[in-house]
Amino acid sequence: MQYNKLGKTDLELSQLGYGASPLGSVFGKVDQSTGIRTVHSALDWGINYIDCSPYYGLTKAETMLGKALQGIPRDRYILSSKAGRYGPEQADFDMSPKRIRASLEESLARLGVDELDIFLLHDIEFVDLDYVLAESLPCLEALKKEGRIRYFGVTGYPLQSVQKIVQHYPLDCVLSYCRYALHDTSLLSITELLQQQDVGIINASPTAMGLLTDRGAPEWHPADRTLIDCCRRAQQLCSEQGVNITQVAMQFAVGHQSIASTLVGTANPQNLRNNLDWIDQPINEVLVAEIRAIFAPCAGSVWASGMDENSDK
Ligand code: NAD
Description:
By secondary structure, the chain is of the alpha/beta class. It has a single domain (3-310), classed as NADP-dependent oxidoreductase domain (TIM Barrel, Alpha-Beta Barrel), CATH 3.20.20. The protein is built from 10 helices and 10 strands. The protein has an 8-stranded parallel beta barrel, surrounded by 4 helices. A two-stranded antiparallel ribbon has the order 1-2. Strand 7, helix 5 (159-168) and strand 8 (173-177) form a beta-alpha-beta unit. The longest helix is centred in the middle third of the chain and has 17 residues, at 129-145. Bound molecules: nicotinamide-adenine-dinucleotide. Residues 19-22, 27, 51, 122-123, 155, 175, 177, 204-210, 213, 246, 263-266, 271, 274-275 line the site of nicotinamide-adenine-dinucleotide. Nicotinamide-adenine-dinucleotide is lined by residues 19-22, 27, 51, 122-123, 155, 175, 177, 204-210, 213, 246, 263-266, 271, 274-275.
């Protein structure tokens, strides 16, 4: 396993990180013993970075992850969780300092740890960005000074929101999702800015939240019909060549030097084992070029997320 430094922090993240959202049963029901076994397998196989949020399964994922981490030495893993998002609706967001502080304490208790290595505002595009800059981020900075968290940053889907925040506030890192994968590489439009400012880059959702798998996307997936159709065509092309599309998706997503870690979610140890084996194998560049050609017509197929003024669509 390769380990990469996250921006200006002293954290060395495994190239592949474990995204714990499936422990909240967001992709299908997960039983506790399988969920816990997946977390233990991840650590045994060299993954040292785990990401969660109170939003995943409305605290279920953090609770299950906390059970999995019981008794594991704290220096064996780097842990991120989030605050600000507590449900699917606009009304479920609260990035006020008071809620952020309470949320951190609740997450620490569920996870069974004294401190988070990385604390992130969850999906900033749903909140007025001027408020995030004036109130929420200073709160995270204060928590860092108080020693409750080690580093902080933001997550979001629209790149223009992330860009605005980075231009106005010194962050340790950002978590972007579905913007550097086989179907969409637009994260690269802001990587130079992030690198100039020494902001660490975490890339999430290498399968685009299930789109680039044989099973396909879950019902709630926000992709439009054009993108879903392109994914099916890419999947068919791969299967005609005897290749699992998730293999190519994993190899592609971990392949950019600006990205410290790529977070993949699964509650199935075998999926995780496959992902780890695949990223060690050489990528088939010819097949990648063919798949990228399939996605060319939907290059602009981003979905709306958050407030209109913050959305890329
Ligand atoms: P993902 O692209 O990692 O896809 C997860 C899906 O892919 C699951 O259905 C899983 O079963 C399937 N999968 C994984 N490996 C597979 C394999 N080898 N074969 C077949 N299927 C496989 O998307 P994700 O889980 O949404 O993202 C990963 C993590 O990134 C999340 O768990 C979360 O921690 C983080 N994330 C954060 C945000 C945010 O902060 N806004 C958004 C998205 C993701």
